[in-house]
Protein 1
Amino acid sequence: MFRRPLDFLNSLPTRGDLVELRLGPLRAWMACHPDVARRILVETRIFDKGGPLYNRLRPLMGNGVVTCDQDTHRRQRRLLQPGFRPSRVADHTDLIGREAESLCREWRAGDRIDVSAAAMTLTTRVMNHVLFSDSLRGAAAAEVGDCLAVIVRGLFVRTAVPVDALFRLPTPANRRYRRAFDRVHAIVDEVIAERRRRSPNGDREDMLDTLLAATRCAASGITEQEVHDQLVTLLLTGSESPSNCLASALDLLARNPEAERRLHAEVDAVVADRPLPGPDELPRLTYTRCVVAETLRHRPPGWLFTRITTKDTTLAGHRLPRGTTVLYSPYLLHHDPASFPDPERFLPERWLPGRAIADPHGAMLPFSAGNRKCIGDTFAWAEATLALATIAGRWRLRHLPGHAERLRPAATLGPRSLVMTCEPRAHAPAGTAPGARSLAPRATAATRAQDSRTAGDNGADDV
């Protein structure tokens, strides 16, 4: 589980629908069949948020919508849901396109681009606007991205090896994790304090204003601490997972030329001479959405989750006492050939409309299911589709000579230091001139050297 987690997960279905395993001194049960996983997700009163993963996330995210228990979840979701309704997502489509275009405008033919860092820069900028109306200034936004990269590397090993004493030792990795942890919380507190000084009456339509307005209403039940917790939660989840999805999509397209060709053809036809894809083009980017769907199947950013039983129960024929840790893995379910034939192949076509049912067993769970399903799933679909279409309309990304796939699971799954070479597309939207020189500063994500600490096989990141 620690050294080769993806291979380990793929080996489990041969042992049954529910498999007992050990996480350090802890016994846990892994759901290996989609019906078992869906029962865990739907019966939230029996299988509540908990276990090693959420024990590690709660100090980071507090009592936010991701980590709160079932009793408080409904109230929190009702508070946040208006910000993620389809109408609000449509309002943000132009923003996503502009940020994606701004990022890749600075690339030059032949540049080596750290795609992982570029994707994180993009998603952090988008969340900065959605949450804070760009109150997070340039240097602070870049610092948040760097801190999140350190945090997600450390979270997985703290889940796989739930022995607290190891992580209290003053090792370099533990000190890095603590510094990043403290800095993210400090930055969010600074943004909240600045907003209270500059706009005390709420004149911005962003999540921060929504939360601060709720604190002025006694009936909402929201505290000052919960404002902080929700913002940290949304900043972390809204930046890290979408950036992994986008980087993985660009990586997988470079490995699959036919899928890349079909994507480019669709983008050229749908976007045509428009500078950017927008809300009118989004529903017509059918194959682009299929690429995103297959990326989420092949490499789900959220790849391993835990739950805790709140009462004695029976699951897949096994008696589980109260307090038992159960796990489910979208990666495992998405790579089971019983649900997805030829699961290792990247086949966006399997999601095209009119095709045979791509997921006959309901195993596709990139955003979870039930009433704890990701609150931002609609936003994430739109963001990934529009960002991918914007980049693909301008650039073709290629792996460096001798590149080998190095998937290193951490709290999320995706390429960690993916460096690629960019080639301008022959067809590019009007006014973008991919090879043209710009007077704007070059993107910080370009030409970054690969970090030797994150190179290697598919084991856990160095901590």
Protein 2
Amino acid sequence: MSTISTQSFTANGITYNPPPKPVVVICMDGSADEYYNAAIARDRMPNLKKMSVQGYRGSVRGALPSFTNVNNTSIVTGVPPSVHGICGNFFYDETKDEEVMMNSSSYLRAETLLAAAARAGRRLAVVTAKEKLRDILSCKMKGIAISAEKASQATAATHGIDHAEVVVGHKTPPIYSADASLFVLRAGVAFLQKGLADFLYLSLTDYMQHTYAPEAEESLAFYEAIDTELGHLLATGAIIGATPDHGMNAKIKEDGTPNVLFVEAILEQQFGSGFRVICPITDPYVKHHGALGSYVVVHINDKNKIPEVQKWLSRQPGITEVYDRQTAATLLEQPADRIGDLVVLSGKDVVVGRRPQYHDLSALDGTLRSHGGRYEEMVSMILSHPLNQAYAVKAARDPRNFNIFDFVVNGTVAQ
């Protein structure tokens, strides 16, 4: 591999001083600590255990809502949604009176540190399992940017690489599979080994976590396969950081059926018409969660009703937090113009939705496991190298999952 640039770069007020080593940050989508712990306890993840012992493992707070687009964008910008503007997978554009997917870089209000790193001479590669993220993550970035979902369609002109399947050594996988995440890691290994990149962001998918509990053999086998690829990445000499975008919890009643509170339906039953509930978890991957998570926003036609509705919702079983727009913007770090009049979060075992006809639960593979609220906000940060003294102090405060590039690049003792 040719010389690795150590030129400093700045993005969103943070200056990065990269080491002369490959840098790899992995978004371990949906990997609540329970998944790691179950696999490590059964000796299925020796490489992750080695990183945790010889490097660093600690708890960090993610961005809310604890959804994929929100946290991936925070990770690659280093800032919360109030700054970068991505507040869900889906939102209601009040100015256009449209409900739209928020998967375009046109919604991004902050530069990515990946684009800044590329300008500073690093060879960039972004590999994401889901195509929906690729445009945001690679915004204005010079380098390789592919998704596992559409790897066969990658070209040098549009993705920075031709024949991606040949380079990686694996065919484009089904998106509803363990292989979708493993392809991402294998691509990272291939790009490092072949000298195609030295600064990588690898974002997995949480299909397996939505489908299987931590102790299930399917989960254990999946994490064992992840660990194998971690070993290959470690063998390249890279400094590696891994953090989830969110955790994962079962959202079921005692009898195993989905525990759903249809917010728009109960509001209309109590107050009449004039409500629009948006589920920001909504995306094309219906087998993951049926567009049901633990966070929704409510748009109310009659603004005079907001205090009364807020008070009533806060008393409903299963609902844990209800905030008006300005409070949510401040407390939850949200862009005020892209959320509703009220923001609603639910309990650990509860999801909130719109009304039954908007959610196809028959599309789910197995039980309902999901995320989005407070109970999926706390995740881990695992680094392959130990922290220096300054960042050990930062880690003892209130570190965020979207600080991970800062910790990896500026905070590790690269040996």
Protein 3
Amino acid sequence: MILAHGAGAPMDHAFMTDVAERLAERGVTVVRFEFPYMVERRLHGKKRPPDRAPKLLACWREVIADIQNTVDSVPLFIGGKSMGGRMATLVAAEGVAGVNGVVCLGYPFYATGKPEKPRVEHLQGIELPVLIVQGERDAMGNQETVVEYNLSDHVEIVWLVDGNHDLKPRKASGFSHEEHLVSAAKAVRVFVS
């Protein structure tokens, strides 16, 4: 599985590292990478906004091609956290050869506070299997709003009780962040199986 980071944190952010380790424990080989703007941020120490979608998508295509040229005949899944997962779904919707499915952890269905502008058009007709692990109270896609979207039958959403965009629930929910991360890893493992 190739996993991309979200808009504001690098590939070695605690969330990304935790998810990669949990998946590896369950037999899923994970490769992480960084988009060009994040590489620049590391090199120069200046915070930069994400590149525009065409550059992010081109980067995704290059990474997929590099992995396909390196590893022979294994099922390949792509995905990521938030923006990284969204870009993975856009690449998958293009029909990139050799990709078996997409996993999104905290999908940004809309910009915070703008549910009237959903980012789901490509998810309405996507043909590849897509797993979205989403917190019920995610500020970029809460359950109440998202269940109203007309998504492809190939899109499966696993809702985590009271989870936010990082899948973290409030203490009063009776769940812990640890439990939700375990549930996310298990859901991904079942999906890729």
Protein 4
Amino acid sequence: MTNSSYYGRIKQKTNNYITEELQEAFGRFLVSREYQKWELHNKTKVIDQYTCFKATTSYTTTNPKGKVFKHNFTAWYTPQLPYKFGPAGYGNLPGLIIELQGDNFTYGVKKIKFYGDDEKNKKTKYQA
């Protein structure tokens, strides 16, 4: 498991599109794209106190030399937290993605904090 973080503002525009605010060396910009199409599985595992369900997706890319690469992803999401988000812009599952596994990496939620009514101006936060 790698120790890495994802920073960026993500907003679900419709049921099928996500907009990400990205900061790169050459500037700040918004990117709108379709959500991933997930295959839902009945397999479960418990992460911390959350029952998580498995979902898989993949996409292909082609480099400038014409070589095709297939990228596979497994997400473990929990309906106990009904937020359709996850790390690195992955989402649109019926719950928060607690763990996202790629071919050579794994993102995992490190901390979830819920704010009480006395802190209404703050929002629920999670760290990946």
